[in-house]
Write a structure and sequence with these properties.
CATH architecture: Alpha-Beta Complex
Number of strands: 9
Number of helices: 7
Number of domains: 1
Strand order of the largest sheet: 7-1-2-6-3-5-4-8-9
Distance between the termini: 34 Å
Strand content: 15-25%
């Protein structure tokens, strides 16, 4: 919570034109930096294998570490991935929010996101700019905008020069709250990484068939 009692996006209100220019860059196969309710993300077209590869290259990220995918809404996500009924119910309960839901990847998203593995994490950030970008650009990679092994970035000023110079657009939404999303596979009842809402998620997993 910010000093004024509000949540998220305390400064640097972005215009629709700025978001649309970033979306155009994503649609053209470029990478962009965008704010979320945790840290800054590195976005590219999650359906484009070459764009996904570019994200791995910019981050120096090992290919065996999968990339999650961000969407503008829960329904947009569920329209593209073949989520089970349980996973869909879980997603509707906890998204938008700082939660990554592991589901079957299906055929619409690039296999390079998961090094060919069949399951992928989906995000619907609790952040207006991130959702607006994904709405305008289509599904985008949802990975932190830092080099692999380095700390996550909460301010645009702290971006690694390689990341900044490798992106076609940087959406500066001010300082983000920080932290990491909770990663959950609701089909298997597993929390892979505990973070925000972890207790509520454990309760949901234990009480629903």
């Amino acid at each position: 919570m910010n000093a004024d009692g509000s949540n998220h996006e305390p400064t640097h209100e972005l215009t629709d034109d700025e978001i649309e220019r970033a979306a155009e860059a994503v649609r053209a196969g470029e990478t962009v930096v965008y704010p979320t309710e945790t840290v800054y993300g590195l976005g590219a077209d999650a359906t484009d294998p070459a764009a996904v590869e570019r994200v791995y290259e910019l981050k120096d990220r090992p290919r065996e570490k999968p990339l999650s995918v961000g969407f503008g809404s829960v329904e947009a996500a569920l329209s593209l991935v073949p989520a089970s009924d349980r996973a869909a119910r879980f997603a509707r309960a906890f998204l938008p929010g700082p939660v990554t839901v592991v589901v079957d990847r299906g055929d619409a998203l690039a296999a390079e996101l998961t090094d060919g593995e069949p399951r992928v994490g989906i995000r619907v950030p609790d952040h207006g700019t991130a959702r607006a970008l994904a709405d305008a650009a289509g599904p985008i990679t949802a990975t932190s905008a830092n080099r692999s092994g380095a700390g996550s970035v909460r301010r645009v000023a702290d971006l690694d020069p390689r990341i900044r110079d490798g992106c076609a657009a940087v959406l500066d939404g001010g300082e983000t709250p920080g932290g990491e999303s909770t990663v959950v596979d609701p089909d298997r009842g597993v929390i892979h990484r505990a973070g925000p809402l972890a207790d509520e998620i454990r309760g949901w997993l234990a009480s629903r068939p």
